[in-house]
Amino acid sequence: MSHKAVEMKFVATKEKGKVSALLIRPDDARFLLVLGHGASTNMRHATLQTIAERMADAGIATFRYNFPYMEPGGGGRSQPVCVTTVRSAVAAAHEAAPDLLLTAGGHSFGGRMTSTAASEAPLDPVRGLVFFAFPLHQPGKPDTKRADHLGAVTIPMLFLSGTRDELADLDLLQPVCKKLGKRATLHLLDTADHGFRTLKRSRKSDEEVFAEMARVAGEWASKLK
Questions:
Q1: How far apart, in whole angstroms, are the C-alpha atoms of residue 73 and residue 10?
Q2: Could you tell me if 207 and 190 are in contact, meaning their C-beta atoms sit under 8 angstroms apart?
Q3: For residue 13, is pLDDT > 90?
Q4: Looking at per-residue confidence, does 171 or 201 come out higher?
Q5: What local confidence, expressed as pLDDT, does residue 73 receive?
Q6: Total domains in the fold of the chain
């Protein structure tokens, strides 16, 4: 079902100024998930919108936002700027819904910038991180360097990763998560690729992939302290 989104603005960094955000808070919201977008998309991209809609169906509020480079005149994609924006987004989301348990993450790049921020210093009051297709490496270039910082993240992490994700070779991702121990939970999405497109004929589950992610995220968040 469709949910009403409230448009907001918040200051990303002093230099870049304000960026746009969208808050969806269903009446039965139990948690709030701060959502960053993919590298070449924005907060209104169909993938992020569908994630937010299915989360709302499952009683999870979302706070989607743009990184400054996706705003008019925002400039290039600077990692320090994006990491600072994550912190600002978390603060703005908490101010918008201070009564909800807070989690943060995003799709691909947005999730990686969130984990980078959390590895540098705690993202208070965030209780856990949710990665929708964590981009472990570039397509065709399997590597784990992008996961090096995850060891410094001190809160629980949920990895929602497709079995056909060309940016997350399972032979690499599974050992990465295992090394993180109890902090990491890996949930594999049968036949899903990096954008969560699935092979309907060979997919073993009848559950729609975005609904599956919302269900799993809700079950995982309910165990956070």
A1: 16
A2: no
A3: yes
A4: 171
A5: 87
A6: 1
In 3-state terms, what secondary structure has residue 103?
strand
Q: Examine residue 140 and state whether it is found in any structural domain, yes or no.
A: yes
CATH number of 184's domain: 3.40.50.1820
**147-175 as b/e: b if 16+ CB within 10 A:** beebeebebbbbbbbbebbebbbeeebee
Using CA atoms, how far residue 172 sits from 32, 87, 112, in Å, is: 30, 29, 16
Q: What is the pLDDT of residues 83-102, one digit of tens each?
A: 999 999 999 999 999 999 99
- Is 183 within a domain? yes
pLDDT in tens, 45-65: 999 999 999 999 999 999 999
pTM of the predicted model as reported, rounded to 2 decimal places: 0.96
* Within a domain: 67: yes
C-alpha 162 chain-centroid distance: 14
Strand partners, 128: 103
Question: How far apart, in Å, are the Cα atoms of 126 and each of 87, 157, 174?
Answer: 10, 11, 24
Residues 88 and 68: their CA atoms lie apart, in Å, by 12
